[in-house]
Every structure is written in structure tokens, then in C-alpha cells.
Design goal:
alpha/beta, five-stranded parallel beta sheet, 16% strand, 11 helices, three-stranded parallel beta sheet
Length: 307
């Protein structure tokens, strides 16, 4: 039996492009659903040209065009959606089309973050997670085979500043630590998320499961992050601490969406939303345990690139 044919929606986005490349590298017949407008935007056109040259088939269509979705679904076995979080509910027509087509053996919806069914931030996030949870319920209600990817934070988010909102690079003098600094968060490089995602598509162990990413070397508290950075620069940083009450006050004082970084920090490093639950007993699976052969970038290796 040959490798599954994969349709990627959102292939010109940051993660979507990595997923498309990973699909091609793994030998899957790869299709990308592309809006007409993408061809006239230079940065998107460049990515599409690169994917096409690597063997991807570009199909014109969009999440709003049911006919284009149904035509594309005839050509593939697996659908992976990687649209931005603000467009998550735009997947509704895609879910309906997958149900109507009846031939898709796996759907991986646009999530690629913290598990929306596990977050403990009580409506602070302006429906960021509830939209993703709503999409899950729709998929499950339609009986569509799925895999959800919960990779927590991308390495390009917060880690380049050592979780210091407003900074573009890690600090070299003083650092702010949120909470007591002992709660652990998880960071995974986007290209690694893509490789682990593609590994799931033909794997029965991930069918109708959440695949979490907690790679050894990528699960770290703020205290551990700071210590790793201090060892790399050969210098101790001055530390100040922002306790939970103070952080909640800052979140309240800052308008949306400027306060979203603080909300995500609160979720990860105060509430422990990345790591507070046991994966196996929650019915999930962990990517690096399933695919020990897949190489990934660790936090320490990523920090080396910031020296």
C-alpha cells in the first residue's frame, strides 16, 4: 500500500509551508489548496513555486468555496489544515465537505498549540481556545477520523526573548520570572512539529487521538531556561519575580490583543497548561515516544543560535 495522499490547507503560512515540505520529504503525494490571491503576493508566490518545484500539486480553491473543497478531497486520503488561529472556525465548511466526501481517512485540523480541552484560563483568551474546541466537537459529531496535534509553544514564540515580553533577544543583565519559576512549559521548533505531524498520518496509534509534544530537552521551567542561558553567556542575571496576582493585574490593565502574550505566559508558566496532566491517562500519545527516530531541535540548541 502506497503512502497517503495529503492535502494541505494553509501551505503558504509559516507552519503550513513546513508541513508541506515535510510531506514531500516523506514521499507523500502532496497537494496544496491555494487561494487565487496567493499567486499575486510575492512572498506567497515564492513559497508556492518552491513547493511546486519539489513536486507538490497546487489546487486553486479556498475554505469558502465548497466546490473547490469537494474537488480537492476526491484526490486525497488525508487533510491537514494549518490556517491561523483567527480563521479556525473557517474550517466548518471543510468539515462538512469531508463528511460529504466520505473518503477521507484522517483529518488534522488547525490547532498546533496548547490542548484547547485542557487550558485553565477561564475565558481570558477572547475565545482563542474555545474556537479550537468547537472545531473538535464538530469533527467528532460528524464521525470524521482525526488526529489533533498539541505541540504547545513554537520555538519562534517567546523563547527568543527568554519569555520577556517586548524584548527581541534574550536579556544579558536582568530577567523577569513569572510565578515561582518552577512551572514547566514546552517549546518545539515549527519544522519539527511538521515532521512529527506527517509521521502520524498513516499511524493507527494516533487515530482519533491527541498527539502531544513533550520532547526531552524541550520541557523547561523559567528558572531552568534562565539557568541554561546564564551558563551559555557565562554570567548570572539579576532576577525579579512577578507573582500570579500581579500578572493578572497586568493582563487586566493591558488591552486585547496586546495582553495575549501575558495570557499565554500565565497559561504556561503559572497554570501549567502544557504539563499539568498525564498524557497516557488522558488518552493521548506523545510524539517523541511514538517516533524516537525523528531528530528535533532542543531548547539548548536553539539558545545557541541566539548567542
Amino acid at each position: 500500500m502506497g503512502k497517503s495522499r495529503i492535502l494541505i490547507v494553509g501551505a503558504t503560512g509559516n507552519l503550513g509551508f513546513h508541513i508541506a515540505k515535510a510531506s514531500l520529504d516523506a514521499g507523500h503525494p502532496t497537494f496544496a489548496l491555494v487561494r487565487d490571491s496567493a499567486f499575486s503576493l510575492p512572498h506567497k508566490f515564492h513559497k508556492l513555486q518552491s513547493l511546486s518545484n519539489a513536486g507538490a500539486t497546487l489546487l486553486k480553491g479556498s475554505l469558502q468555496d465548497e466546490l473547490s473543497l469537494l474537488e480537492a478531497l476526491k484526490l486525497v486520503d488525508v487533510v491537514i489544515c494549518a490556517v491561523p488561529a483567527k480563521h479556525v472556525l473557517d474550517q466548518r465548511l471543510l468539515v462538512q465537505s469531508i463528511k460529504q466526501a466520505g473518503s477521507i481517512k484522517r483529518f488534522i485540523p488547525s490547532e498546533f498549540g496548547v490542548d484547547p480541552d485542557k487550558v485553565q484560563i477561564s475565558n481570558m483568551d477572547k475565545n482563542f481556545y474555545s474556537r479550537k474546541a468547537e472545531t473538535r466537537r464538530l469533527i467528532e459529531a460528524e464521525g470524521i477520523p482525526y488526529t489533533y496535534i498539541s505541540c504547545n509553544f513554537f520555538m519562534s514564540y517567546l523563547l527568543p526573548s527568554l519569555v520577556q515580553p517586548g524584548l527581541k533577544a534574550p536579556p544579558r543583565d536582568k530577567v523577569t520570572i513569572f510565578g515561582d519559576g518552577n512551572v514547566k512549559g514546552v517549546f518545539v521548533k515549527e519544522s519539527d512539529v511538521a515532521n512529527f505531524t506527517i509521521a502520524t498520518v498513516d499511524d493507527p496509534r494516533t487515530l482519533n487521538k491527541v498527539m502531544y509534544m513533550r520532547p526531552p530537552g524541550n520541557v523547561s521551567s523559567m528558572n531552568e531556561l534562565v539557568e541554561t542561558w546564564e551558563n551559555k553567556i557565562g554570567k548570572k542575571l539579576g532576577k525579579s519575580y512577578i507573582e500570579e496576582e500581579e500578572l493578572l493585574k497586568k493582563i487586566e490593565e493591558n488591552p486585547y490583543p496586546e495582553n495575549m502574550n501575558l495570557i499565554f505566559i500565565y497559561s504556561a508558566f503559572i497554570k501549567g497548561d502544557h504539563t499539568y496532566f498525564d498524557i497516557e491517562s488522558s488518552g493521548g500519545v506523545e510524539g517523541t515516544e511514538l517516533y524516537p527516530h525523528l531528530r528535533y531541535t532542543t531548547i539548548a540548541e536553539h539558545l545557541d543560535t541566539l548567542l
